[in-house]
Amino acid sequence: MSRPDFIETASGRRFRPLSPDVGDIVLEDIAHALSNQCRFSGHVRVHYSVAEHSVRVSELLETWGCSQRIQLWGLLHDATEAYLVDIPSPLKCTPVFEAYRLAEDTLMVAVCRRFGLPIAQPARVHHADAVLLATEARDLMPFRPEHWGSLKEQPLAETIIPWGHETAERNFIQRYLRVSA
């Protein structure tokens, strides 16, 4: 029996993550899948979804006065994980995962086309992502200095209290409606 070249999404679509069709990328599928995926490979004290992380990145960009387009990029910066799931960074950076990185890059181009974003991730999005990483590490992980000493950004003053997955999905969609208007 041959293996399928597609995944079935939450909306029932047939999605080919290795040869994505821009028309098959659906915001609700992204919001649903990311709300069910936990950051840090699940090694957090309490479930904290990629969807919530993405909303928080987008909101931080708003507080920095970034345009709605950059805020939308921040919201969708991990959208590929809805279809490919996330691979921990130490693994993703190895030669074994070169094909994964290529698939992720190809899919991100499709996501950018679908949502009318520039292909290159804005530097402010990368910076906001790093600030959230520092905040998440402090608030959601055991936060051993020997593990996190290489973080370059200061965490936010606010403490993260994670939402449930349903709230994260709903907030992701609401945030999209706000920043895509």
Radius of gyration using CA atoms only: 16 Å
Architecture, according to CATH?
Answer: Orthogonal Bundle
What is the class in the CATH system? Mainly Alpha
Name the beta content range: under 5%
User: Which runs of at least 5 residues are low in confidence (pLDDT < 50)?
Assistant: none
CATH topology descriptor: Hypothetical protein af1432
What does this structure look like?
- By secondary structure, the chain is mostly helical.
- The protein has one domain (7-122, 164-179): Hypothetical protein af1432.
- The protein is built from 9 helices and 2 strands.
- The protein is globular and about 50 Å long.
Indicate the topology.
Elements: E1 7-8, E2 14-15, H1 27-36, H2 50-63, H3 68-76, H4 81-84, H5 89-92, H6 98-115, H7 123-140, H8 145-148, H9 165-179
Antiparallel strand pairs: 1-2
Throw out a few tags for this protein:
single chain; 2 strands; mainly alpha; 181 residues
Question: In short, what is this structure?
Answer:
The protein has 181 residues and is mostly helical.
